[in-house]
Write a structure and sequence with these properties.
The chain has 241 residues and is of the alpha+beta class. A hairpin with a 3-residue loop joins strand 4 and strand 5. Its EC number is 3.5.1.2.
Length: 241
């Protein structure tokens, strides 16, 4: 896992022959192929996406999370670049065996076209802040280990080229979107989502970034880690030593 802007060309891999980050295009393609493996018992492509969407809805406390068909059709118009990257990854033998490019890209575009509201997005962020346990439903959607990995990726590369500066100023994991969304997670404290469509030169919502930097004093979940007690199996956030 490396910072977002270290490699300008998407046609680069690590020495181990894998993408540098799941938040770049090549990494997203490989993640989609792995999602296909996870839903392998499902044969229909629509059901594959429904399986992924069901997880998203559980993270959001079953609030609004649906496919935006207009966004999906618009993304399909620019699929040539993703095909080129996919063939590059296939040539480098990154794709899992038996996973097709077309089905992988279709699932990726559907995931990219999933829309949520600020309320459902905040519930998702709160679930991540709570170690994968939805605080509203009590549903353990993700394991604490998976949540820690997710938050680490968000902290290193979630805000595009501005990730390092944002991490220095706020020290909290966050993920931005070209739609103007910023998802912020304060581990063990809170999760929130803000939306403002005006983007800065880094592709982040400039109002969202400014808001996070203004309230960074309140984001007190910095330097925490998730510890699981062996006796009670409770999730406890304690300061790093």
């Amino acid at each position: 896992m490396e910072e977002y802007s270290k490699y300008e060309s998407p046609f680069t891999l690590t020495k181990q022959g894998v993408p540098h980050s799941p938040l770049v295009e090549t990494g997203a393609i490989i993640c989609s192929s792995l999602l296909q493996l996870a839903t392998r018992p499902v044969t229909d492509e629509e059901e594959e996406y429904e399986s992924v969407l069901n997880i998203i809805r559980r993270l959001c406390n079953k609030e609004h999370a649906n496919l935006n068909c207009t966004s999906y059709q618009n993304l399909r118009k620019d699929i040539i670049r993703l095909h080129a990257l996919s063939f590059y990854l296939q040539e480098k033998k990154c794709f899992p065996e038996g996973v097709g490019i077309n089905a992988t890209l279709d699932l990726l575009l559907q995931c990219l076209s999933t829309e949520v509201t600020c309320e459902s997005g905040a519930a998702l962020a709160a679930t991540l802040a709570n170690g994968g346990l939805c605080p509203l439903s009590g549903d353990q959607v993700m394991s604490p280990h998976a949540v820690r990995s997710t938050l680490s990726v968000m902290q290193v590369a979630g805000m595009n080229d501005y990730s390092r500066t944002f991490n220095f100023k706020t020290s909290v994991p966050a993920k931005s979107s070209q739609s103007g969304v910023v998802l912020i997670v304060v581990p063990g404290v809170l999760g929130l989502m803000c939306w403002s469509p005006g983007l800065d030169c880094n592709g982040n919502s400039w109002r969202g970034v400014h808001f996070c930097e203004l309230v960074q004093v309140c984001l007190i979940g910095v330097g925490t880690k998730l510890c699981r007690t062996s006796a009670l199996q409770d999730q406890v956030w304690a300061p790093l030593i």
